[in-house]
Amino acid sequence: MAKGDLFGPEWHEVEDLTTGVKTLQLTDHKAHSHHLYFTNSGWYDDNQQLLFGSDRGGSSNLYSLDLRTGEYRQLTDLEEPPGSGSGAFQSTSVNPVRPEAYFWWRNTLVAIDLETLEERTLYTVPDGFHGGGQTNVTADGAYVCVNIGQDLSDRIPMDLGAGYVGMREYWAAKPRCQIVRVPTDGGEPSVVWEEDSWIGHVNTSPTRPNLLTFCHEGPWHLVDHRIWMLDLDTGEVWKLRPTAPNERVGHEYWFADGEHVGYHGWTEGGSPFHGAVRYDNTTVGEYPLSHTSTHFHSNDLNLIVGDGNRDRPFLLLWRLTEHGYEGPRVLLRHRGSFHIQAVHVHPRVSPDGRQILYTSDPRGYGNPYLVEIPDVETLPLLEEVEQPRS
């Protein structure tokens, strides 16, 4: 297997035994494959191509799937770094105005032309720091924004991809962290924000080139505040959706309008909810949930998808009504293990709102899946579905 190689389709349809819904398993190989992290869209070329990462061939590489034919193409041919695990390409992002993607390789940020497969080095992390966090492109395609953190590996062992080892210790150390804006044309990078707090999940607005969210990473019940907004034009930073004591809010993502940010959380009393807030905190819409999930995604408030959890391994749908969220209704049983980051389900609604992309490993190996969203009212309520045996 080599860069540029084209392979025949592996996809096939699978009928869910719980609901009868048919889902399309996109890959089928004795190695983990996965879509991008749920805050990053992997669709490009007028939504006809989809990026995914895979460990096939004994090394993690980036691939592109043609959603018209099922054929896939190997885009990179990279040597596996020592000690690396699956999921190296989850943080990849796509330029919204030209066929180019950006990914971390060791401590180097790389741009790849998705047509010619030419690679360019855009940025190298300075000594004393480490990269590897989310990459996200501004809405005008001019910059890739990334976060880097102080390298404390000499005293704090970390493996966030396999059980969040070292998470609490790194948070408590208050590492020096930076948000770096890197020109996609190869210009000089600039540090646009830095502080002595663990920064993660840099997410750019899909419509406003000057806005991005980031989070104070760490155990949710211990961080000072999770979701922050940064104006790249002015350098101003502010809390998004201020929280009360003992409230927990996070797993933020931009709605398709680029104006609102979705999130989920728990009230002071421990009750789950989902909501959205405008980037300037002027409008907030929040609704209680009867059940929660590990992650949520949506293009707006009208229909949200959650991935359940280990005890309830279902794709769940909630529909907004005048009385709040109705549901959840069970779309299918994904049977994801959530064992490592590469096989987290991380559902994401497609740009046209008609499908849901997710990853699962019901037979041992992770694979990305696409499922059409049916008439929600035809699906069973969670209470009507027999819970899986432990």
Could you characterize what this model shows?
This protein has 390 residues and is mainly beta. It has 2 domains: 1-38 and 41-80 and 295-389, 7 Propeller (Methylamine Dehydrogenase, Chain H), CATH 2.130.10.10; 90-264, Methylamine Dehydrogenase, Chain H. It is globular. Helix content is 2%, strand content 41%. This is Oligogalacturonide lyase. Keywords: Lyase. Residues 1-375 form the Oligogalacturonate lyase domain.
What is the CATH T-level topology of the largest domain? Answer: Methylamine Dehydrogenase, Chain H
Biggest beta sheet summary: 6 strands, antiparallel
From the spread of the alpha carbons, the general shape counts as globular
Q: Helicity level, as a percent range?
A: under 10%
What count of domains describes the coordinates? 2
Q: Report the CATH C-level class of the largest domain.
A: Mainly Beta
Q: How large a portion of the residues is in β-strands, by DSSP E?
A: 35-45%
Number of helices: 1
* Average pLDDT: 94
Structural class: mainly beta
Q: What ranges have pLDDT less than 50 throughout 5 or more consecutive residues? A: none
Distance between the termini: 39 Å
Q: Give the C-alpha Rg.
A: 20 Å
- CATH superfamily grouping of the largest domain: YVTN repeat-like/Quinoprotein amine dehydrogenase
Total strands: the figure is 32
* CATH architectural label of the largest domain: 7 Propeller
